[in-house]
Design a protein that fits this description.
There is one protein chain. The protein has four helices and no strands. The chain is mainly alpha-helical. It has a domain of 50 residues.
Length: 120
């Protein structure tokens, strides 16, 4: 069995992630050595309007491979749009997780049962 798809993914990722040049590494070391007070931010305007900000836009939780048994029709539906069916499944599961855990904690941090409303 050939894993050509994974080779393509790696090649595509490597083309986006170029190694830093010696000059870039030197610049990074020089900036990292400075104290915050010594860095000149005068050419970077302060961001005061955060209304267009997206919460979690750059959040990338670690991924772990798992084996699941799913119904054939569910797999067919996930794959119907083509590539990215695992991403779609992950997104759907995350939405369900968020929905089901939303508002299930009390002020003291204890979990509240969704069925009875009593704290556990």
């Amino acid at each position: 069995m050939c894993h050509l798809g994974s080779r393509r993914r790696i090649a595509r990722k490597e083309s986006r992630m170029r190694k830093l040049t010696k000059e870039q590494k030197r610049d990074i070391r020089a900036i990292a050595a400075k104290r915050d007070e010594d860095i000149d931010f005068s050419d970077a305007p302060a961001v005061v309007d955060w209304s267009g900000a997206e919460i979690g836009k750059f959040y990338r939780p670690t991924k772990r491979p798992v084996t699941m048994r799913l119904d054939s029709d569910v797999i067919a539906w996930l794959k119907a749009d083509g590539r990215g069916y695992q991403t779609k499944a992950n997104w759907l599961l995350r939405q369900a997780m968020t929905h089901l855990t939303e508002g299930t904690r009390t002020a003291s941090g204890k979990r509240r049962s969704r069925r009875t409303g009593k704290t556990k």
